[in-house]
Amino acid sequence: MTSSTTDLLKRSYGLSLAGTACVRTAGFVFNILLARYLGASSFGEFMIYLAVLQFAVMLSDAGFGAGALRFMALFSGQGNTVKEADTFRFSGLVILSLSFVTALLLWSLRHPLSVLFKADNISWMIEYTFFFVSVTALAQFLMQAMQGSQDFRRMIVFRDILEPLLRLAVCAAALLLGFRLAAALASYVTGQLFLCLAAAVFFAKKWRGILFKTTFSTEVLRPLVLFSIPLLLTNLTNYLFQWMDTLILGSLVSTKDVGIYSSAMRWASLGGTPLAALAPIFLPTITRLHGEGRREEITSLYRKITAGLISFGWLFLFIVTAYADALMGFFGPEFREQGRYILPLLSLGVYINVATGPTGSFFHMTGRSKLMFYTALSLMPIALFTNYYLISRWGLWGAAIAYTFVVSLSNIVNVVALWFCEGITPYSSASALVFLTGGVFFVVTLAIRVWVPVPVWADGLIWMGIYPALLIRFKILPGPGDWKRWIQGT
């Protein structure tokens, strides 16, 4: 890997990791507040509302969010400011226009959706907040545009630090004033409006004089449209993979089960923090390296990242397995009884996703979005059948089993497809050794707990002391000095 690429990652990853940890932590506290104040049933209603809202946002995006990210990163790397601004303006206009249509569509379906999910509150939440579709769609697009412009620091500060803290503060204040679901809605839209305003000011200053042009370059529009439109179907399949368990669980079982399942998923999703922190810098970096034909650097970067993700994944999987009861207790007593059993299973699915590295990023950023769509589409019938069958038979347990199975199958297929198309795999001898070492530590420490009551400090000594020291000793992972230099970018 050349020094310029390495320097970019060094300067950006430390802030990205801090920002991702901040947004995950603030979001986690936000969900705990809601769960404890609302209870499992109302919390489940809010999760279903978010799932429905995200569906409308996905339709509004129509693939132009990812398209803008890719082409803005490409033009930014070429130093072509005019084409970069044209991509931004056209994509933004399309997304905003479509969001008005989908918002009205959502409003018209508020009563059928309330009946489908057996949740009376869904109807009034949509009736009074259908305009959230436009606000959310615009906010998500603007953050993708900042990512495409490779202004990682501002984007991370806006999206991952300031917005979640603002949302948490508004939610806490509204709950103290006696509001319930209204507190969740007010805090959500406040955060999205802040992102829109902050990003609008940023781009107005960046492209002063050319941002509000009324003409577009045909050299920009044609490839942008051809790339983006197929992504609508890809986004639809991704949406179903992300939300189908919640939606099927809500329609077949109850909103209370959705609340318990969602709270366990909030814990499990924390295991994906290191992978999520890579996205803002990894996507544009891969686009640039692929465009320059630097194949060996892509492979090296991919494998080093995956080895580090695997090592963290084992640590997190042990924590949520050994302390599931205490962790679910944060949400309240009614979440603990069933949540403590499904949390380790959901975390296993998250670990498998993390252990395959940022595979999906390659398909989007190397121009193979159609391949990703066909891959996801071929798996969709299996995913739908698995979720419907298992949830209808076993409820919460079925949802957790289906999630882990579908995530595992999807990631295995993606890794195979990437190897077949690009000749790249995320694994090397180092990552295999990390996997085996972590697996041995996981099995042995859990087996010991069956026979001996192990104190918390002993687990900490093993997993925070012996385990990383062993990996550093054999140069599988960088040492403290290397991490410090990486985060500081020196």
List the main descriptive attributes of the protein structure presented here:
single chain, 490 residues, mainly alpha
Could you explain the architecture of this structure?
The protein is an all-alpha fold and 490 residues long. The protein contains 20 helices and no strands. The two termini are 16 Å apart.
Average pLDDT works out at 84
How far apart lie the N and C ends?
16 Å
What's the number of structural domains? 1
User: How do the helices and strands follow one another from N- to C-terminus?
Assistant: HHHHHHHHHHHHHHHHHHHH
> What's the total count of β strands?
0
In terms of DSSP E residues, the strand content is under 5%
Major sheet characteristics: none
Structural class estimated from helices and strands: mainly alpha
C-alpha Rg, in Å?
22 Å
Give the helix level as a range of percent.
over 70%
How many distinct helices?
20
Poorly predicted sequence stretches spanning 5 or more consecutive residues: none
Shape verdict: globular
Quick rundown:
By secondary structure, this protein is mainly α. It has helices at residues 3-61, 64-78, 81-108, 110-116, 120-129, 132-148, 152-176, 181-206, 218-252, 255-269, 273-291, 295-322, 324-328, 333-355, 359-365, 369-394, 396-422, 429-451, 456-473, 480-488.
